[in-house]
Amino acid sequence: MPTVGHDRIDGGNAGLPARLAGQRGHADGHRKVGTLYLSLAVVAGIVGGMLAVALQAGLLPHDVLARWGGGDPAGMWERIATRHGMMMVFFCVLPALSGGFGNWFVPLLTGARDMAFPRLNMACWCAVAGSFVMTLVGLSVATSPLVSVAALLLWCVGMLGMGINMVASVLNMRAPAMRLRDMPVFVWAQVLTAFMLVMVVPVLAAALTRIVLDGGDVLAHVDTVLHAFSGPEVALLLLPSMGIVSQVVETFCGVSLRWRMPVVMALTVMSVGGASVWTHDLFDGLLNTADAFRTTGELIVILAPVVVVMAAWVATIGAAGRISFRLPMAWAGGCAVLLVAGGMMSLRSGGTGDVHAATVFAAVFATFAGFYYWIGKMSGHLVPRMAGNIHFALTAVGTAVSLMTHQGPLAVAGAVMMGVSILVFAGVLVATCMRGQGHVAANYWGTGARTLEWRLPSPVGTALNTDAKGNRS
Length: 473
Fold this sequence. Notes:
- The protein is mainly alpha-helical.
- The protein contains 14 helices and no strands.
């Protein structure tokens, strides 16, 4: 029986891989919804990135901001900056990591035909997409502040439903012989993220509802709530990110992930503990008193699991002896470097903002690692190698510059470089989807890729006819 990055490829059922490989009638609803989440993430990333470039590079002069802001340029600048953060976290990175890759690959990796509630799955995407549109409308000063609150409430509804659907799917829809301990780390990360969404999103929705009922300065209250939510947000971004990187490391090292069960336990601690880290960032000034013991404890809840997971990656790389340095591995390495940088920043006084910036950038790198890792499985085509390398180089340099400085010419250069990288990625995406070459093999990464999705054709849903080496004919 073939071995895999987790204990077995089939969870103890020798017939499971063959059954999956022959699933001509496998439902494609979860893949379509996953593609919709990824498409929304691309649009939100472009919009949010361009907003950041416009602000950082001074493309929105003082008089333009004053005109848009009804005579309040500072308030308009703050409003655009807030929307940029919402675009990147609420509508780009988190939907891509959980809604996009989660919907696409959790059923494939667990032997499920579809998600547990297909109609709910589609309804949740509609809620998140509607929230995105309402957030854009909320940029205008002519729009009531309650529109922003309504957008966030609608986002909460969509993400809560998505989390419930993911938990139900993994617990009830996986192949009968696949035990929980046999699931890949990626699936564990997805279901733990879903559990965390179920825990924290109702709290966020309750706080937003109270804002509506209390009245007063709505935008100020929303900013405070979002500031509090930035604590759980870190864990919500890190969990699926580390699941993707673990999958990539296993594939390109060619050996199973070392310390697998400690990694699962660490992710569980992050999921449960991260749901309680609500007030950590408020101690920077929004609360009058600070409990040093509590803030240190909350920091350890996030940092300790990250250290355990990264140690497992290092142990896996050390056990491999030889690593295949392909493009997904480069993005995974960038994510790991940013996690180390974020941990170092967290030890510095007043470095909370830098920590969150490093976390978001790490999640972006993990998202691109997943994209370049699975794009052949999703589309049937691999990306143009040179364009992918250029995209990585621009993003890596732009990220480093953006984290090192926040103002001045160097900061402008970093923002412009990030903007160019977004355009390059858009070109990569279009070129990949429009390529007229033949479809890639079912397992185009070779013997290192041994989880269940690599037994299915590329793209998933087409007829599979392979030779002994796994090449599709």
